[in-house]
Amino acid sequence: MPQLLPETSATDHLDVIALDGAPRLCALYRTHDAEFATEEDLPDIAGWVLAWPDGSALTLLTEGEQPRIISGSLSNVESWWSALLAADLVAVQQPTSG
To answer: Cβ distance 59 to 73 under 8 Å?
Structure first.
């Protein structure tokens, strides 16, 4: 049975549960060379990825006029979409204070 946890932020009005098989939030994160970056070339999220412990993944590509959702594997995201979008696949977490 999942454990019910209290709210974690002021904007989180939903109940939160802890699941052993919960997906991990990742991003296809594009960085630019800071030495040559202009105001328009700030780091960019090319897509969001939900990665499950079994290696499956659901990817939301955010570039272009219409976002696309792609079902597949995390290894496919790393080898294909990361290279195609010139973006690194990174795990996402909340900033730590301090």
So the answer is: no
Q: Which DSSP string corresponds to the chain?
A: -PEEE---STT--S-EEE-TTPPEEEEEEE---TTT--GGG--EEEEEEEE-TTSEEEEEE--SSS-EEEEEEHHHIIIIIHHHTT-EEEE--PPPP-
Identify whether the C-beta of residue 70 lies closer than 8 Å to the C-beta of residue 46: no
The 10s digit of each residue's pLDDT in 35-51 is 455 556 545 888 999 99
CA 42 to the chain's CA centroid:
17
Angstrom distance (rounded) from CA 8 to CA 56: 27
pLDDT for the residue numbered 35: 47
Global pTM? Answer: 0.73
Tell me if 54 sits within 8 A of 24, measured CB to CB: no
Q: Cα–Cα distance between 61 and 9 in angstroms, integer?
A: 27
